[in-house]
Design a protein that fits this description.
- The structure holds two protein chains of two kinds.
- Chain A contains 21 helices and 17 strands.
- Chain A is an alpha/beta fold.
- Chain B is α+β, with helices and mostly antiparallel strands.
- Chain B contains 18 helices and 41 strands.
- In chain B, the strands form nine sheets. In chain B, strands 24, 25, 26, 27, 28, 29, 30, 31, 32 and 33 form a ten-stranded antiparallel sheet that branches.
- The longest helix of chain B is centred in the C-terminal third of the chain and has 22 residues.
- Classes of the chains: A alpha/beta, B alpha+beta.
């Protein structure tokens, strides 16, 4: 946000836009569009219908065959091919094919620079039969740079998507702002940002970064609900390597600064990265299938071969007896959900919490789970923010949330405390407490201390809370508790006593904080029954303008 | 913990998993009220089944690693006897004796392995007034000693491998002895091993040369030139006879088992009866086996192992004084419950039948399913059975197993998953059943040797019954690298993928939405970097599959009919199909998305990528997938302290091997190798605290698999 307040001139250089890269583009002659009438060329007197046909034919080539070939050589598809692969066959209806920009500076008014479509393909189609709006930036047209009209096209489909209630998918491949346009281009960005925010929570917004995405442009994907990247061909950063070098003297290339690997494992900007364009687009189709069309639409339902009453005997033994030994929570999830099909998000960042979508008896659920394999599944800064954002998404679209709990507490240490585990941990707590979507919680093993409260406990209005028989719900582990309570006494005996008396789900069940202690093998059946019941859940909060989630950014962000 | 819940769980599981092998009809004489089974896993369950049938209460003993095992839950009583290591649990006689006293068991069945052939244990039990269900002490000691057993065998006039046990020094002596034994002979260095100092001679001349060379070789290799001579057995087959004897001195032999398919002296496939056996030889061998038993005063079940050459000359090898792993094949063809006989004999009852009552009914084959990786030199594969579904219960199928879904194959014991035993009216029927069952057997989470089974039982020599103990070294000299699929197999899989894609696409589509479905267009599929184009004609239901190379398309194969007969999701997406009149069974794995498909077919995993024509066209522009960058070092994923380091510098490591354990947040995290190679440097010590991203271990990568060191030698012959 601080970037937006800077002076335009400085902002331009800071946003990493490289005029050098764009210069050849407007110098190059695009032969296909010489038919466009203008004062210089002779008047084309053919009937309009004929001219239109030819005009459209040329328009779909974008920046021309030569540039498309260059795109292909880089292992990338062009904008229209991407849309075709993403949407169902023959379902794409393009809008604004004939739009051209209105800039007249730096020779932009010339015919060859007025390429119809203006660097973005927009329209709607279907994904497995459900409507979806798409915009796909065309790198072959002025490097996919964003002009005033380019932005207008995007805003138009976003407005339409909100009106009809359909997701918006952005396929980003853009060099940045259209420098020749100056503030017009910046205004365009801001219009898109504004739409992103207004549409947030109304329709799902997904960004797939398939090429460069630099400077202020990154904030649009950042504000959409999900950001995906393509490995090796896409990168995102606020300031490019040149500026970084000039300001901080760091020598770094694009991939290391903002490649898919960085954003999926270090920064947590992207939710997932895919091998190539085809892989990304096909998997994005799978992903869109999970989402409701809008906040007014019902959950999508897909028939499944997986029986709703399937029992999973192996879950009875998945949790090891020794509380020190870890197990893979993903295995638990995959055994409970339909057909083992779990679309995990942010799999490589803050791995101590697992988030993602799956289906239960054909209907989408969001899953949040502690991962005992990583950092014993404790909550830290990254995992709290990762979980919080996901919980809020699910709540916005009324997607039921399944929470699997095995949490020994919050991560201790100066690093965590000084960077604000307090306010970051509060985000997850806030998100859960605020949400009104159906929520079911299963405590598989540990639920200690404040982290027990945070992880969708009964006290935070969860609808159904269950524990497996091995669960330990207590203020802390038996050893720690015994050390405090029975200082100087026979610790081993007291630890054992504490274990027997408090480290089990009985006390919580007696209080009604658990609805039941269930056998692991029956978990799937119970959840499906409960979800059926919760489909008509109504829970309303008192009127307010909006809540005030603790949003302060990490102090490290500014460095 | 809540005591009540645990009891409930146990009862619940008992109800679900109690599967009886034999129906409890017939009347059984009074034997014992309670038997303790001093063993684990499948054999413990096997013995329990018979005990339950006979109305005897069972007592199981278990180590910490087995506390959730099926045999513990199913037994009437179960007692812990120690930590996982078998030398601290299953092999500790005093602990077992304590349990005997505590539970009040009157007899102990030792199963196989562990204490089954331990005469000290037997003595200990007898001293405490407890019956050992097995042979008498003198028989165990006599047969346990190689020299002693040979002496007794000679006394009982049992054919032993002719040879001169003394050391020979003169060439003339060599020739004389060889003539006595009869050519061919084997001239062996007494210090020899690994084929060194070993020569086969077919006549005097060769014997002379062989003797000279062997002596020279033995001196240079072992510094010991002593040589002895033995009969060389041509094309030997391993044939063994199950005998039954009671305490009254009655003996019967049961039809033979053939166990010639062996890998490093471990039996892989056992069948009964042997394909090469004729009634006369069977009678001769069986009678010798009984005579041997009689001579050493043996009773209960036992097995005499013989080697048989191509001239049907047989030679006694050794006697196993226990119930053997492969006993079910004999049970299947004779209908005799060997464990029941053991219990009755131990209680002093005489045998109920004579030799002429023993009949052969059909043919039975057993395959031992192990958690091991055939592609990695059969290294044991440790882990949890993420998914475990046994084949459909068909007549003739018997599965002896000690595991269920979710069980752990631990590092402490033999990594056997189960014994797949198939019976048929004849051998081909039994093989057919075994083939079908291997296809249907779903095992995930650990590597297994089902693919190896599939290869063996479809080997022409094996089908013909024309095989010897050299079968595996001959056909798989470099180990087993997985079945090589033919183009036909690939084409079959593409059709299946086409079918499944149609089903899944239909499910993905919202009802009432109409657009051109995929099923009307061809699909492109990739298997092992080869592309196929699959088209389906909806009028005639015909499929045509063509291999595509670049722009060139080969002549398509037409499949008249391809039907998915059954799609069993519960059984991990088992697909029964009929393609061009042939019935095939495949497993459909890893249902995560519908771009990449993964099948388990003919014992191997196959990956497929499915694209529509448009996607296929676009796919040409995609860069080939980047080569996986094998990390050459291991960094600490979290701050914590090193609890243990299981490798040393210079050690070879394989993918998935445990390297060290780091304790963080009071949790032990096992750090496993992601590469195959050799450890170059270990940068951490036990007790040392490490930070995030701290370098722990460095590797030198090597291409070849490291030499196999058999750590798990508890296989039973």
């Amino acid at each position: 946000p601080v970037m937006l307040t800077l002076k335009t001139t400085r902002a331009l250089s800071l946003w990493g836009i490289r005029p050098l890269a764009l210069r050849p583009l407007w110098k190059t002659v695009v032969r296909s569009f010489s038919q466009v009438t203008s004062e210089e060329s002779p008047l084309d007197t053919r009937p309009f219908v004929e001219r239109l046909k030819e005009f459209k034919k040329a328009a779909v080539l974008g920046g021309g065959q030569k540039r498309i070939d260059t795109q292909h050589r880089k292992g990338k598809l062009n904008a229209r091919e991407r849309v075709q692969i993403f949407l169902d066959p023959n379902s794409f209806r393009e809008q604004d094919l004939l739009v051209t920009h209105r800039c007249s500076e730096f020779g932009m008014h010339k015919d060859e620079n007025k390429i119809p479509g203006d660097g973005v393909v927009t329209g709607y189609g279907t994904v497995n039969g459900r409507p979806c709006y798409v915009f796909s930036q065309d790198f072959t047209v002025h490097g996919g740079s964003l002009s005033e009209t380019h932005a207008q096209k995007i805003c138009k489909i976003m407005d339409m998507a909100m009106r009809v209630g359909a997701p918006v998918v952005g396929l980003n491949d853009s060099g940045g702002a259209r420098i020749q346009e100056g503030v017009d281009s910046l205004a365009g960005y801001a219009e898109v940002f504004q739409r992103n925010v207004i549409a947030s929570g109304v329709v799902p917004q997904i960004s797939l970064i398939m090429g460069p995405c630099a400077g202020g442009a990154v904030y649009s994907p950042a504000m959409t609900d999900f950001t995906f990247m393509v490995k090796d061909t896409s990168y995102m950063f606020v300031t490019g390597p040149e500026v970084v070098k000039a300001v901080t003297h760091e020598d770094i290339d694009q991939e290391a600064l903002g490649g898919a690997k960085v954003h999926t494992s270090k920064s947590g900007v992207a939710h997932d990265a895919f091998d190539n364009d085809i892989d990304a687009l096909l998997r994005l189709r799978n992903f869109v299938d999970f989402l409701p069309l809008s906040n007014r639409a019902p959950l999508p339902h897909r028939p499944t071969d997986d029986s709703p009453t399937r029992e999973e005997p192996s879950l009875d033994t998945v949790v090891p007896d020794d509380p020190k030994v870890s197990y893979d929570m993903k295995e638990v999830i995959e055994k409970i959900v339909d057909e083992g099909n779990f679309f995990e998000l942010m799999a490589n960042w803050a791995r101590n919490i697992i988030i993602g979508f799956a289906r239960m008896n054909g209907r989408t659920v969001g899953i949040v789970a502690n991962q005992p394999r990583v950092l014993a599944g404790c909550l830290d800064i990254d995992s709290s923010t990762k979980g919080a954002r996901f919980v809020r998404f699910c709540d916005a679209f009324n997607i039921p949330i399944l929470t699997f709990v095995d949490v020994p507490g919050f991560m201790p240490g100066t690093d965590q405390e000084h960077n604000g585990i307090i306010r970051n941990g509060a985000k997850l707590l806030f998100a859960y407490a605020e949400s009104t979507c159906p929520r079911i919680t299963i405590i598989t093993r540990k639920a200690y201390g404040g982290a027990y409260d945070v992880m969708s406990s009964k006290h935070l209005r969860a609808d159904f809370n269950y524990a497996w028989p091995q669960a330990e719900i207590a203020v802390m582990g038996a050893q720690g508790a015994a050390k405090i309570l029975f200082r100087g006494q026979d610790l081993d005996a007291k630890t054992k006593e504490y274990e027997i008396r408090l480290c089990n789900p009985l006390l919580a069940a007696q209080r009604g904080f658990l609805d039941d202690v269930v056998f692991p093998r029956e978990t799937r059946k119970r959840i499906i029954e409960d979800l059926d019941l919760l489909r008509n859940k109504v829970l309303e909060d008192p009127w307010k303008k909006h809540s005030n989630i603790p949003l302060q950014l990490d102090s490290t962000c500014w460095l | 913990r809540i005591v009540g819940i645990e009891i409930y769980i146990q009862r619940y599981m008992n109800r679900l998993f109690t599967k009886r092998l034999f129906t409890s009809t017939g009347k059984y004489p009074k034997t014992y009220d309670k038997i303790l089974i001093a063993n684990r896993g499948e054999i413990s369950r096997r013995i329990q089944d018979t005990c339950k049938k006979m109305g005897i209460k069972t007592v199981a003993v278990y180590s910490d690693a087995d506390r959730h095992a099926m045999f513990v839950k199913e037994a009437d009583e179960a007692y812990r006897i120690g930590p996982p290591q078998s030398n601290q649990s299953y092999l500790v006689m005093d602990n077992i004796l304590d349990v005997v006293k505590k539970s009040g068991a009157q007899a102990v069945h030792p199963g196989y392995g562990f204490l089954s052939e331990n005469h000290i244990f037997q003595k200990l039990l007898q001293d405490n007034g407890v019956v050992f269900i097995g042979p008498p002490t003198r028989a165990i000691t006599a047969m346990g000693d190689k020299i002693e057993s040979k002496k007794i065998a000679a006394e009982a006039k049992v054919n032993t491998i002719p040879g001169y046990m003394g050391v020979v020094t003169e060439i003339e002596e060599v020739k004389r002895i060889s003539k006595e034994i009869g050519y061919p002979v084997m001239i062996k260095a007494s210090a020899g091993g690994g084929g060194k100092g070993m020569r086969i001679a077919w006549n005097d001349e060769e014997a002379e040369i062989g003797f000279r060379l062997s002596t020279e070789e033995a001196i240079s290799s072992f510094g010991d030139g002593r040589i002895f001579i033995e009969k060389y057995i041509e094309e030997p087959r391993h044939i063994e006879y199950q005998i039954l004897g009671d305490q009254q001195g009655n003996y019967v032999y049961l039809p033979e088992r053939e166990c010639s398919v062996q890998r490093r002296n471990q039996k892989v496939i056992e069948e009964a009866p042997s394909v090469v056996m004729d009634p006369d030889t069977r009678h001769a061998m069986g009678t010798q086996a009984c005579n041997l038993a009689r001579t050493c005063g043996y009773y209960t079940t036992g097995t005499c192992e013989f080697l048989m050459d191509k001239h049907k000359q047989f030679y006694f090898l050794e006697m196993n004084t226990r119930l053997q792993v492969e006993h079910p094949v004999t049970e299947q063809i004779t209908g005799i419950d060997l464990v029941e006989e053991m219990i009755k004999i131990a209680a002093g009852y005489p045998l109920e039948y004579k030799q002429e009552d023993v009949k052969i009914n059909g043919h039975s084959i057993e395959y031992r399913v192990y958690a091991e990786d055939p592609a990695r030199k059969f290294l044991p594969s440790i882990g949890f059975l993420k998914k475990y579904r046994e084949p459909y219960n068909r007549p003739g199928l018997r599965i002896d197993t000690g595991v269920q879904e979710g069980s752990e194959i631990s590092m402490y014991y033999d990594p056997m998953i189960s014994k797949l035993i198939c019976w048929g009216k004849d051998r081909s029927e039994a093989l057919k059943l075994l083939n079908q069952n291997v296809d249907e057997y779903v095992i995930r989470g650990v590597n297994h040797n089902l693919g190896f089974c599939k290869t063996i039982i479809n080997n022409d020599s094996f089908i013909k019954g024309d095989y010897t103990t050299a079968f595996i070294p001959t056909f798989y000299p470099d180990g087993f690298k997985g079945e090589v699929m033919s183009v036909e197999d690939h084409k079959l899989l593409t059709i299946m993928a086409y079918k499944i894609k149609n089903i899944k696409d239909m499910q993905a589509r919202l009802k009432g939405v109409d657009y051109e479905p995929y099923e009307y267009e061809p699909l492109y599929m990739e298997i092992d970097d080869t592309w196929y184009r699959v088209t389906h004609d909806h009028e005639t239901e015909k499929f045509s599959v063509a291999k595509v190379e670049g722009e060139v398309e080969e002549k398509p194969t037409i499949f008249d009919e391809a039907k998915v007969e059954k799609f069993d999701y519960e059984h991990d997406s088992l697909i029964f199909t009929k393609v061009a009149g042939q019935e095939k069974t495949l497993q459909f794995n890893e249902v995560t998305d519908f771009i990449d498909y993964s099948f388990f077919y003919r014992g191997s995993n196959v990956k497929l990528r499915v694209l529509t024509p448009k996607q296929y066209e676009a796919n040409k522009y995609m860069a080939p997938p980047p080569k996986i960058d094998h990390a050459k070092r291991v960094i600490s994923p979290m701050p914590g302290s090193v609890v243990s380091v299981s490798i040393e510098e210079g050690d070879p490591v394989v993918d998935g091997q445990e390297l060290c354990v780091i304790e963080a947040m009071k949790m032990q995290n096992i750090i496993r190798s992601e590469v195959e190679g050799k450890v170059k440097k270990v940068n951490c010590k036990v007790g040392q605290s490490v930070g995030v991203d701290e370098l722990l271990i460095e590797f030198v990568q090597i291409q070849q698999y490291p030499p196999y060191i058999p750590e798990f030698s508890i296989y039973y012959l």
